[in-house]
Amino acid sequence: MIRDITFGQYYPGKSLLHRMDPRMKLVLTFALIVFMFVCKSFASLAVIVLLTVIAVALSGVPLKVIFKSIKPILIILIFTALLNIFYTHGTVQNGDALWISFLNGKIEIWDKGVYTAVFTMVRIVALVVISSLLTYTTTPTMLTDALERLLSPLKIFHIKVHTLAMMMTLALRFIPTLIEEIERIMNAQKARGADLETGGIVERAKALVPIFIPLMVSSFRRAYELALAMTCRCYTGGEGRTRMKQMKMKGRDLVCLFVCLAFAAGIIVLNYFAKHETFSIFGMLFFKQVI
Amino acid sequence: MSEKLIEIKNVTYTYESENESRPGYTVLKDVSVDINKGEFVAVMGHNGSGKSTLARLCNAIFEPTEGTVTVKGITADTEEKGDEIRRIVGMVFQNPDNQIVATVVEDDVAFGPENLGVEPSEIRRRVDDALKSVNMYDLREREPHKLSGGQKQRVAIAGVIAMQTECIILDEPTAMLDPMGRKEVIKTIQRLNKEMGITVLLITHFMEEAALADRIIVMDSGKIIDDGTPEEVFSKVDFLRAHKLDVPDSTELCHNLGIKEHVLTADECVRKIASLLGGEAV
Fold this sequence. Notes:
The complex is a heterodimer. By secondary structure, chain A is mostly helical. Chain A is built from eleven helices and two strands, in the order αααααββαααααα. Chain A has helices at residues 16-19, 22-38, 42-59, 63-70, 74-87, 111-137, 140-151, 161-191, 201-232, 251-273, 277-288, and strands spanning 98-102, 107-110. In chain A, strand 1 (98-102) and strand 2 (107-110) form a beta hairpin. In chain B, helix 3 (105-116) runs parallel beside helix 5 (149-161). By secondary structure, chain B is an alpha/beta fold. Chain B has one domain: 3-Layer(aba) Sandwich (Rossmann fold), CATH 3.40.50.300. In chain B, a hairpin with a 2-residue loop joins strand 4 and strand 5 (74-75). Chain B is built from eleven helices and ten strands. In chain B, the strands form two sheets. In chain B, strands 6-7-8-3-9-10 form a six-stranded mixed beta sheet, with helices on both faces. A four-stranded antiparallel beta sheet of chain B has the order 2-1-4-5, covered by helices on one side. The A-B interface holds A 3, 6-7, 139-141, 169-170, 172-173, 176-177, 180, 222, 225-226, 228-236, 240-246 and B 59, 61, 83, 86-87, 90-91, 93, 95, 97-104, 106-107, 110-120, 123-124, 127, 143-146, 159-160, 163.
C-alpha cells in the first residue's frame, strides 16, 4: 500500500496545461492567487471562478480528482464560513442590513457576514483548486527545476539556489524510501515485542523512540552513501552543470500569459464598476422578504 | 590488452581512528596490482579483506595512506585530479537505493553527464543509448522506487555508462538482490565488458560471479593472496578454503569426485560427469 505513494499528486496527462512551461505555470499560479485577494466584488470574483473552470476543463484532470483536493479543507471552509456569518457585523449597503436576530440580539446575522462568508469560501476553493492544478499537471521534479531557474537571479545575493533545489529533489526522492524503512523498522520492533498500538498518548510517544533512533541512524548512513555515490558521478555543485531537459517558452505559454492578463484586467475593471450591486440584489431577493 | 589502466603501487590504507591516542585500522598492507584496459577482473575476499577499500582507492574517493594509485597516468593527489579520475572510472555501489538521485529513471541516468557539462542533446542521446544497453529503455519514465532491486541496479549501471567512463567498478552490486535480479545484473555486466569494451572491476563474494571474469584477484586481511585466471584460482580448492573462501559448487563437486580438470560452470560439470559415466549430457 505504501509502495503506491506518488510524489506530490501528479496526474499524468498530455493536456495544454501539462505541456506548458512549468516556469510560466508557476508564475501564473502565483499571480492568480494574488489576484484572488485583489478581487473586491462578486463580479470580479466571478472572473476568477470562470478562469478556474476553464483551467480545470483544459487540464483534463477529472472533477473527482479535483474534489479530492478540496476535501481536506472542507472543515476549515465550514469553520471560516460560520465565523464570518456570526461574527461579522455591519453592512455593505445602505438601509437595514440586520437579517436575523436570535436570543435578544445575542446572535445576529448581518448581510455583511453572509457576504464575507460566501466571498471567502469561493475565494478559498478557487485558490485550492488553482494551486492543486499546478501540482496535478507538473511533476515535483519539474517544479523544483522551474523554481531553481526562476530563482537563479538570487545568485547575485550569494544564495545557493542550485543547492536548495538539489536538496528538495533529494528529499522528494527519499520520501518513499524512508517510508519503507519506517515500515521495516516498525515490523522489526513489533517482532521483538514492541507495543505500538495500545496505551495513552505518552506511552505511544515513548514507543516511537525505538523506531526513530534506528531511522535516524540509517538515514545518516544513507546520506553518507548517497554523497559518496554523487561524488563518484562527478557532482561538484551547480557550477558547470548542464541539464538534459531544457525549458523553452513556446507560443502556447505566451497565449496563456495573454489570456491571464486579459482576465486580470477584467478583475480590476469590475472591482471599480460593479461593487456590491449583485450581492445586494441577491440578498434582497432571497432573505429580506422571507424574514 | 596489456595497456595499463589502473596502477596500484605499494598501497597501504589505514582508517583513522576516532580516538587520537589509538592507532588506526589498517585494511590494506603494501598492495600492488595493475588493472589492464578491457579486462574483466573480479576481486574476491571475505568480509573485511579490504576489497571494497581497494575499489574506493581506484576512483580516488579514498586517498592511499602510503603508495600511489595512478589511473591513465593521473595520480590522485589533489581534489581536481580526483575529479578527473572519476571521469575515467565510474562506480556502482551495493545498495541500489542509496545511489539513485532523481525521481525519474531517465533523469537519474542523466545526472552524471549533466555534472560533466555535456550538451543537452548529447545527454539525451547518451541516456537513451545507456538505457537501451541495460534493457531499461521502456521503463525510462518510471519512478525508481517502483522498480525491483535488479532494475534499480541496472539504472545505476546505465548512469555510469552514460558518463562514458572507460572503467566501471562494481562494489558487490548483487549482494542485496534476489537470484533473478542477480542474473539480470551479471548479464548486463558481462555485456558491458564484451560488447562495449569497458574495463570491469567486479567486487564480489559470490564465486559463481567471479568465475565469469577473465581474471580473479583474491584478497585476505589486506593482502592480495592470489591473482590469475578463474581456472588457476579455483584449482586451489584447499588453499581457498584455508582463507575462508569457497569455490563454485560445480568446481567443488568435481574436486570431491577426484576429477583433475578444472570445472567452473554447471554445464561443464554436467558434461564431465556424464562423460565419466560413459554417456552424453542431454
